[in-house]
Design goal:
Elements lengths: L3 H18 L7 H18 L9 H46 L17
Helix pairs in contact: 1-2, 1-3
Length: 118
Amino acid sequence: MIRPALTAWRDVTMKLLALSAKKTSEEQRDEAILSIEGFLDDRDKLQPHIAAPFTPEEEALGKELVKLETNVQKELDLFRRQIRVDISGTQSKKGNMKNYLNPYSNVARDGTFYDTKQ
């Protein structure tokens, strides 16, 4: 007999894995982040209900869940990296636009000539 908390954990983990693996556009990313946070909160609520002793069936399910957890971690890391890439791209575009509008703002002043005789 497997506890309902374990099966609910597996279901939420599968949903989380599917959502994090799905490629989302920048417009849909905020919704995806909110959903991911919701799934992680659901798992946090289920965690106190999962405690030893475990039956042999639950141990087998636990081994499966550990494998799923590594996949979830990889997918969430890829999702986070994609967000970081987009943020750095946006920041570089902003910097390029600023340099285009004012090209002499970052000119080094070290070698300029100062007329000391006035």
